[in-house]
Amino acid sequence: MVRWMVALLLLALLTGCVRTQQGQEPMESDGQSSGIKMELHLAEKPTLGAVSSLEMTLTRAGQPITGAVVQVEGAMSHAGMEPLLVEATEMGEGAYQAPLAWSMAGEWIVTARATLTDGSIVWESLESVEVLSP
Ligand SMILES: [Cu+2]
Fold first, then answer.
1. Which domain holds residue 104?
2. Between the CA of residue 70 and those of 9, 22, 92, 95, 133, what are the distances in Å?
3. CA–CA separation, 38 vs 102, rounded Å?
4. Mean pLDDT to the nearest integer, 111-124
5. Ligand 1 mean position, distance from CA 95 (Å)
6. Over the chain, what is the mean pLDDT?
7. How many domains would you assign to the chain?
């Protein structure tokens, strides 16, 4: 079982997705995440004036979690700027997707917050997303 998890993890790493939070040991649930894993991945390189699709997968012990409501927030670190708020679309099989329309070049933090059907909430962030000028 553990070996299988390791294989899955390696596979996830090989796909090149950006993973920012720990969660490397899904067997050791901390009560808060209880084996739930959320992975975020930007399908397109973030460019000012363009849209990147934020692809998310939600799993519990490797099984897809469906029916979650996922809110995505994109924010910059400086003051006086409205964050980008988008509700993700469920794509099935535990996949969710949200379009992010970059309104400024610079460093962004993207946070996805999922409310599961049982009411529990999990979140994950992509820190230091660099949005480039075209
Ligand atoms: Cu800004």
1. 2-131
2. 23, 20, 13, 11, 28
3. 23
4. 94
5. 29
6. 82
7. 1
